[in-house]
Write a structure and sequence with these properties.
- This protein is of the alpha/beta class and 260 residues long.
- It has one domain: Rossmann fold, CATH 3.40.50.300.
- The protein is built from ten helices and ten strands.
- The strands form two sheets. A six-stranded mixed beta sheet has the order 6-7-8-3-9-10, with helices on both faces.
- Strand 4 and strand 5 form a beta hairpin.
Length: 260
Amino acid sequence: MSEPRSVMRVENLSKHYGDVTVLKSLNFSVAAGQVVGYLGVNGAGKSTTIKILIGSIGDFHGEAQVCGLDLRKDSVAVKRRIGYVPEVALLYDALSPMEYLLFHGRMHSMADQTITQRARALLSVFGLSSRENQPMQSFSKGMKQKVLLAAGTLHDPDVLFLDEPMSGLDANAVLLLKEIILRLAKCGKTIFYSSHMLDVVERLCDRIIILDRGEIVADGSFEHLKSLKKEKSLEAIFGELTSHQSIRGLADDYMGALAL
């Protein structure tokens, strides 16, 4: 059986902001149909990696390709092939979900009829049919997140980048999104999933990359990482690899501060 084709590849990927090094010579490739969990503490370089891979940051060292396209030369072409759901829902609040999705679909050269049909179906899935023509300024964070999820998949992308996609979602919407991610992967879509919800990543992702201070410190399936680190949970593995101070010691210091 032939190996799954690679849809994402980075070689010696580095990023600096002045004297600060954010990413240090990252190397990995991702195959079609993989659900990859991309983990790290705040400031580890997760968001910077994603912004490079979606074509938002072009000033980097090393090589980066998505769908066989060089991000330095073909970032616009890459953007046509990918979907992106950010953590913060920066939407045009004066627009309705349908107006926003029409705008988004036209940016991907979709026909209005296709956009409208698909948008209506997606909004129905997320329970927003009755709100499709209402301005989003009164929407909750979870409702806006659902609109972002609809927008990120509206054009049926080959690769989907998710940055804390469950932020603000209710329990049923979280269950729905998990099922959608698994269905997309079965269809050959590649999911690059960044999150702090380690229990979700443990159950959902078939591969996990852990980043610490701009460097990859672990890369493999949960079972592989568990065998290497002799730990039973992703939370314990993550803590061992990324916590440079004792969690118990820090909690002791916290309680001591309250006693001052």
